[in-house]
Amino acid sequence: MEFSKVTTTTTELSIATTTTTKLSRMPSDVFILVITNLVDQSYLQSGDGTSKISATINAPDKHYARNAAYALVNGELHIFGGLYDYKKYDSMKNEDLVTRRCRSKTEKKL
Q: Measuring CA to CA, which residue among 93, 77, 97 is closest to residue 85?
């Protein structure tokens, strides 16, 4: 009798799948900060207008934002001028207003 040697080769196959789900942003997911002349009455309004939440802004007084101009730059709110100091330049970090060292050369009145 004659025997022959059998060689078996096993190859593993791995397949990776990636699923991409595009999430759409709903208007109700976006909130708009509304700063009123009296900062203690400021609020967040949902993008679709269905909800309104009071906002807390820590400012020296409630008239702080009166007659001020605003700019949103790289997600940071900047405030120029205002009722008591038309040359001030502040920015908002979280809920707190931060006074900048520099001042405007001209008065900012609205």
A: 97
pLDDT digits over 38-96, tens only? 888 989 898 888 889 998 888 778 887 788 888 888 778 888 877 777 777 788 777 67
Q: What are phi and psi of 29, to 5 degrees?
A: -80, -15
Q: Is this structure's pTM higher than 0.70?
A: no
Q: Residue 10: inside a domain, yes or no?
A: no
Q: Judge whether 32 lies within some domain.
A: yes
In the chain, how many domains are there?
A: 1
In a domain, 63, yes or no: yes
**Strands across the sheet with 52-54, in order?**
31-34, 43-46, 52-54
